[in-house]
Amino acid sequence: MDIKKLQSIFAIGETVAVEFKRCGNGIESDTYETICSFLNRYGGDIFLGVENSGKVCGVPKNAVEDNIKNFITMISNPDVISPTVYLVPEILEYEGQTIIHIHVPPSSEVHSYKKIIYDRNNDADVKVTATNQIAALYIRKQKIFTEKKVYPYAKNEHLRFDLLPRIRQMAVNRNKDHPWKDMTDSELLQSAGLVSEDAETGKRGYNLAAIMLLGRDDIIFSTNPVYRTDALLRKVNFDRYDDRLIVQTNLIESYYLLLKFAEKHLWDKFYLEGDISVSLRNIIAREMLVNTLIHREFTSAHYAKFIIEKDRMFTENANRAVTGGVITPDNFDPTPKNPIIAAFFRNIGLADELGSGVRRLHHYVPKYSGKVPELIDGDIFRIIVPLDDNYSYDVEMDKKFGDVGEKFGEKFGENETQNKILSEMRENPTISAKSIAEKLGLTTRAIEKNIRALKDLGTVERVGGARGGRWVLSINKEQKL
User: What is the pTM of this model?
Assistant: First the structure.
């Protein structure tokens, strides 16, 4: 690990994947708790000889070898870490001090330290004792998709075949030559992957995806009694609610019920894309609702929520987390949670390609409320969209740029490259210099040089850090137009 990376880590401090520990003549037990929690979460890096503040105090040089030897003995002991792991500590020299770096990869197993399971929550190691928390850990470690679970006793009468004509039409509306158009009901269900075979028992039947997509309410309740989406409006009565909708029906009809709730309680602000009027409200609500319906972990007892408040709205649903942390268009690595259900929604036009929702939210939310959304990956996945009833994109553009607002990005840089950079920033306020460089076919160094010039002009400023920050365009009207 090089010095620059170490400096960056110590400056940022402890995170969900970084832990600092003081270390004298012995390694404390809380180090093994952290190893256990890293193994159970996303992995991480431990630095022995560093204070919580990030100040390097070092490990006594005469104790380094013994500490490493004892460490390896401990993690190889099944009475300490179970299942045991193989880790190789690395000795580093930093500013005249000796530190020990331990990289902990994520594990496919659930581990315990002295028979206690630990998990990582932000920068803390927490004991996992509740049954549902332990179950969530095992779900996260599974390499299977729970939507594929077979229910051999589910029959045709348990499904809403009356929805299939509508579903065919939706597929054809998306693609006039869609193969579902000429399939029988049975062929359609087979084609959509809603019939599976249990590899262990050999039994064949409708799977959980079929039941969640097309099941009647009674079969959904009997197979998944904790499934529901709770929609709440809290603008006046914060302790309870001003309006409420509990949705426990199939995913297709759930989407339309929840969308109606959003349309009832959110402003549909005027916005032109080119010369076509589009509904920002419906675009944003669609992405939020589709995500919470199709990417949730259905075996979890956590109720999904869609809540509208005065200054924000948000969704949350149980999730099988992959990386954790804040998701942006630049760091997002699309991972399907329920690929059969997601593909079904794409076929009927209610979802687009994997990962498009992140880009669309970051594109349209600033136009709807003037702020950027937050997408937080964890055991509970959250999408938070700021709200501002008084914000209008057109009015703000008029205030900033007058009648040249629509031509922004053509006149406010000192050269063509800077104008293109401004256009990209306006399109995506969270875009990185590297992504701009890739789009414009230039080097990152050239883009960074032009961004510095734009900052000096007062044309643009960066709010927040490299991760999770955004560009704010603040054109000075005294500049030559």
Answer: 0.62
> CA–CA separation, 186 vs 163, rounded Å?
13
Question: Does residue 421 sit in the same domain as residue 451?
Answer: yes
What CATH number does the domain containing 83 carry? 3.30.950.30
Residue bearing tokens 């669309």 = 360
> Which of 94, 129, 164 marks a domain boundary?
129
333 pLDDT band (50/70/90 cuts)? Answer: low
| Span 119-144, pLDDT tens digits | 988 788 999 988 878 887 877 776 55
Does residue 344 fall inside a structural domain? no
Exposed e or buried b for every residue in 32-41, given b needs 16+ CB within 10 A? bbbbbbbbbb
Nearest-10 crossing angle of helices 416-427, 433-440: 120
Do 7 and 71 belong together in one domain? yes
d(CA 345, CA 449): 43
Share of the chain above pLDDT 90, in %: 47
Alpha carbon of 369 to those of 133, 284, 467: distances in Å? Answer: 36, 11, 21
pLDDT value, residue 303: 92
Counted residue by residue, the chain has a size of: 481
For 429, phi then psi, to 5°, come to -60, -15
